[in-house]
Amino acid sequence: MFETDPRLGRTLTSKYGPAKASLILILVQQLGGLTVIAIGLAAGPQVLQYLWLFSILSLLGFLMTIAAFVLAIVGTVIAVPRPTRKREAVFALVLTSLAVLWLIARAAASIATYGAI
Questions:
Q1: Labelling 66: which of 29, 33, 80, 91 has CA 20 to 30 A away?
Q2: Could you read off the pLDDT of 27-47 as tens digits, one per residue?
Q3: pTM (two decimals)
Q4: What are the distances in angstroms from CA 20 to CA 4, 14, 72, 108?
Q5: Could you tell me which residues come within 8 angstroms of residue 26 by beta carbon, excluding any fewer than 6 positions away?
Q6: What backbone phi and psi angles, to 5 degrees, belong to 83?
Q7: Do the beta carbons of residue 110 and residue 117 sit within 8 Å?
Q8: Where are the domains of the chain?
Q9: Span 34-83, pLDDT tens digits
Q10: Can you name the residues that pair with 11 across neighbouring β-strands?
């Protein structure tokens, strides 16, 4: 199950654990975001009384994106010295980088529109 890398002299653990965790976090965040949008659209005007809940869920999505980005960086750092393919680690880093750029663009648009986040 676990093999020893002769170059590093240590036992390799699960392949790409942090990178896979990063991808799973991004997937959960996207599914959660789509669920919130669907609930908001289905509720109609009554959704205004639950804005506090949407604010908390938005903060949770932001934190999940940052955690996924950190895990993708850690996964890439772990994958670089390994002799195996680095496809999962690079894909996780690219995907989370796009998610972070999207958050920055949304924050900039919100500041430009409303003067606050």
A1: 80
A2: 888 888 888 888 888 888 887
A3: 0.73
A4: 21, 10, 8, 30
A5: 64, 65, 68, 92, 95, 96, 99
A6: -80, -5
A7: yes
A8: 13-114
A9: 888 888 888 888 877 878 888 888 888 889 989 999 999 998 888 888 77
A10: 4
> Sorting pLDDT into bands at 50, 70 and 90, what band is 88?
confident
77, two tokens: 């750092």
Task: Tell me which of 7 and 29 has the higher pLDDT.
Answer: 29
Per-residue b/e over 37-48, b at no fewer than 16 CB within 10 Å? eeeeeeeeeeee
Q: For residue 72, how many other CB atoms are within 10 A of its CB?
A: 29
**What is the SS3 string spanning the chain?**
CCCEECCCCEECCCCCHHHHHHHHHHHHHHHHHHHHHHHHHHHHHHHHHHHHHHHHHHHHHHHHHHHHHHHHHHHHHHHCCCCCCCHHHHHHHHHHHHHHHHHHHHHHHHHHHHCCC
CA distance 68 to 93: 9
